[in-house]
Amino acid sequence: MNQPWQALESLNDVATSHLSWTQLLGDDFVTHQHLLVPIKELAAALPVPGRPYEWLEIVEVEDGVFEGYNEKTEEYVPVDRRDIVCYEFSFGKLAAELASLVGFDVAFERLGGPMYRYRLGHYGNPNGSGFSLFLAKVSDPRRLDWCIDAFLAEFQRPFVLFLTSKRMLSSRNETMLDSRGSLMVPLDQSLLLGDDGEWCLSPWARQQIIAFRDRLMPPAKTVAGRFPTPSGSRWGDLEIRFCNSEKISVIIGDQRQVLTFSQLGLVDSRSGKPSKQWELLLKFAREHGMMTWLSPDACRKNRKRRELLNKSLQRFFDIDGDPIELTDDKKGWRCVFKLQPEGWEQAFASSSQPDRQQDDW
Fold first, then answer.
1. Which of 236, 187, 242, 176 is nearest to 209 (CA)?
2. What does DSSP assign to residue 334?
3. Any residues with CB less than 8 A from the CB of 254 and at least 6 apart, and which?
4. Which among 45, 41, 40, 47 is positioned nearest to 24, based on CA atoms?
5. Apex CA 263: angle with CA 262 and CA 266, to 5°?
6. Which of 189, 216, 243 is the last residue of a domain?
7. Which residue intervals of the chain are DSSP H helices?
8. Buried b (16+ CB within 10 A) or exposed e, 158-196
9. Is a pLDDT exceeding 50 seen at residue 352?
10. In contact, 48 and 55? CB cutoff 8 Å
11. Same domain for 122 and 153
12. Parallel, antiparallel, or unpaired for β 183-186 and 160-163?
């Protein structure tokens, strides 16, 4: 498999002609073509196939008609315009591929400076815990020295740095990254193409990233056991009010508690964020406990999420029966328990106030 990483290292730029890409990637050009984006530039020269040190200087002999001049042979040869169209490697598309595998939120941008440095995104809460992920594309060790010095000067927290390979990484740079607690991930050892043509992380890369994540973001702890539900309680006795997007107030009989999503066990073990079940509970709250196909957040994936949410709530509150059931017309779901969104008391109070405009005359 001729992956694009070595091809990128051979280029000083991130763009080259269509013909150059086909030669650099060989038989795997079609496999990686989705990562190449055409730009509004034509190549000034083309490599001569089979002759690594010979180039054709491109000349437009008339509108849309091109020839290539070989200085070594002093010959002109016809050139297909499609071969001189330049294509840029899309690191934005690569960021999306990595995000789908690692689980970070894409926030792609090219960073300042003369080198090709990119912010790919952030894992976890960008305003608190978590870490950023970066990428540097270089073609010689001195440029990599500059990039790593810039990353360490600009970002004080540990980060993940993707490189095309370790070929240009010096022991000095490796030590500097280690001392900051950062992780370097070489793409040629980490991002692989499966037999189905889809990208996948190598077991080594997955293990390294998980260990790095768990060091910076220890897995959220959940409270063992269950809610102290009074004996004989039913789902109709339960009232849940959202305090914010991560906390709820729970009332059953004389039992009252404020709980987080992790205390209910509704946490994504991979990211430490609220799980899809918690998000569904929040969506139900916005609809005051009712969801139909006309609801803004309705989607087919909610069917399985509702099943899992039902099991989680049954286990935590130790109440028999489904807490979220089909409506009578079988066209939606409703919460058997009382469920209110954040700030519903203020909204209710405002709507209950009489219209005083007539009294201002």
1. 187
2. E
3. 230
4. 47
5. 45
6. 216
7. 4-9, 18-25, 29-32, 81-84, 91-102, 141-154, 171-179, 187-190, 203-216, 276-286, 302-317, 344-352
8. ebbbbbbbeebbeeebeebbeebebbbbbbbebbbeeee
9. no
10. yes
11. yes
12. parallel
- Please report where in the chains the tokens 């894409």 appear, as a residue: 106
143 lies in some domain: yes
Question: What's the alpha-carbon Rg for the chain, to the nearest Å?
Answer: 29
Q: Would the pLDDT of 158 be above 90?
A: yes
Is 113:150 a contact under the CB 8 Å cutoff?
Answer: yes
Question: Would you say 141 and 154 are in contact if contact means Cβ atoms under 8 Å apart?
Answer: no
Q: Report the distance separating Cα 260 and Cα 274, nearest Å.
A: 9
Question: Of 130, 134, 135, which Cα lies nearest the Cα of 157?
Answer: 130
Which pLDDT belongs to residue 219? 59
pLDDT tops 70 at residue 359: no
What gap in Å lies between CA 74 and CA 10, rounded to an integer? 27
Query: Do 179 and 76 lie in a common domain?
Result: no
Work out the average pLDDT over 261-269: 86
User: Which of 40, 72, 89 finishes a domain?
Assistant: 89
Contact by Cβ (8 Å): 55, 46: yes
Cβ–Cβ under 8 Å, residues 2 and 28: yes
Tell me: do 121 and 148 sit in the same domain: yes
Which residue in this structure is represented by tokens 């500097």? 176
The C-alpha atoms of residue 196 and residue 111 are separated, in whole angstroms, by: 34
Q: Which residue has the tokens 């269950």?
A: 226
pLDDT score of 1:
44
Cα–Cα–Cα angle for 15, 89, 185, rounded to 5 degrees: 125
From residue 250, give the alpha-carbon distance in Å to each of 37, 219, 232: 53, 24, 17
Q: Which domain holds residue 125?
A: 92-216
- pTM for the complete prediction? 0.63
Distance CA 242, CA 253 (A): 18
Dig out the tokens for 57 from the structure: 């200087």
